[in-house]
Write a sequence for this structure.
């Protein structure tokens, strides 16, 4: 579930960086501007920088949500083992003999 969520979040952040904000253009728009005005800016750089900043911040937040950080997990308890004397088949003569066998649960 975490991989699916992180994949969707990465896709949304990636797609939001690709969307560009543009103004409507008109054929007579150049007549209304003063050509001698040196302080005119069209602010396309600000929109791109804002999109990049939002993508970076969103990526950091998404990464923090997906990766909860290192956690201490207790190791499982060791198995309970002991030795018991049991009869074991003898491979040499087909008989049986007693042997100490380790039994774990």
């Amino acid at each position: 579930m975490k991989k699916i969520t992180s994949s969707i979040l990465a896709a949304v952040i990636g797609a939001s960086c690709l969307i560009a904000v543009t103004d409507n253009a008109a054929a007579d728009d150049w007549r209304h501007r003063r050509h001698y005005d040196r302080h005119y800016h069209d602010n396309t750089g600000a929109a791109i920088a804002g999109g990049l900043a939002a993508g970076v911040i969103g990526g950091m937040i998404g990464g923090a949500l997906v990766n909860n950080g290192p956690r201490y997990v207790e190791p499982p308890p060791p198995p309970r083992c002991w030795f018991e004397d049991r009869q074991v088949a003898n491979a040499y003569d087909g008989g049986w003999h007693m042997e100490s066998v380790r039994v774990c649960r």
